[in-house]
């Protein structure tokens, strides 16, 4: 959740859940460890990743965190800086949502509409989410109405 401090395990598990393989499946500890060792020359084991992800190890070296950040395509600051972590999480959420073909179709159809039309679409989507019992979405910094 934005604004709340998150542990290394929280951050790492979030990366595993949102940064997916090309076939849209979650990476395994084994795949990440092998990729980091092979591509970056930083030895790391799948079992060590498991310890990090379960919080049984909570003080990895900067070299390991840097390698993990590189593998998942985020800044190493993701693990240390709350503001950077929250911003990256928001970006990953958008990327994750856009993997859904239905969401992507709606977004593409909204392209080029006026600000007033986009506001009306947001209102409809908010109401439909409410009707379906879904939680409200976090305010988007680009959303003028909620700023």
Write the layout of secondary structure elements.
Blueprint: H1 8-18, H2 29-40, H3 46-54, H4 62-72, H5 82-98, H6 101-110, H7 115-131
Helix pairs in contact: 1-5, 2-3
Written account of the structure:
With 147 residues, the chain is mainly α. It folds into 2 domains: 8-98, 434 Repressor (Amino-terminal Domain) (Orthogonal Bundle); 101-146, no CATH class. The chain contains 7 helices and no strands. The longest helix is centred in the middle third of the chain and has 17 residues, at 82-98. The mean pLDDT is 84.
Q: Indicate the overall shape.
A: elongated
Mean pLDDT: 84
Assign the CATH topology of the largest domain. 434 Repressor (Amino-terminal Domain)
Q: Structural class given helices, strands, pairing? A: mainly alpha
Number of domains: 2
Could you tell me the radius of gyration in angstroms?
A: 18 Å
The fourth-level CATH homologous superfamily of the largest domain is lambda repressor-like DNA-binding domains
Q: Report the helical percentage.
A: 55-70%
Reading off the top of the CATH hierarchy, the class of the largest domain is best stated as Mainly Alpha
CATH architecture of the largest domain: Orthogonal Bundle
What string, H for helix and E for strand, traces the elements in order?
Answer: HHHHHHH
Span between termini:
19 Å
Number of strands: 0
Tell me the strand percentage band. under 5%
Largest sheet features:
none
- The unreliable regions are none
* Helical stretch tally: 7
């Amino acid at each position: 959740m934005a604004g709340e401090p998150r542990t290394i395990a929280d951050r790492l598990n979030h990366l595993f859940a949102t940064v997916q393989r090309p076939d849209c499946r979650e990476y395994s500890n084994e795949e990440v460890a092998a990729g980091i060792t092979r591509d970056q020359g930083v030895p790391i084991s799948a079992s060590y990743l498991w310890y990090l992800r379960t919080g049984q190890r909570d003080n990895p070296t900067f070299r390991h965190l840097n390698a993990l950040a590189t593998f998942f395509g985020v800044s190493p600051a993701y693990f240390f800086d709350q503001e950077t972590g929250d911003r990256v999480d928001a970006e990953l959420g958008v990327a994750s949502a856009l993997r859904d073909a239905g969401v992507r179709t709606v977004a593409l159809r909204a392209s080029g509409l006026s600000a007033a039309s986009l506001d009306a679409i947001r209102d409809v989507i908010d109401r439909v989410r409410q009707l379906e019992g879904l939680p409200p979405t976090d305010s988007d910094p680009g959303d003028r109405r909620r700023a």
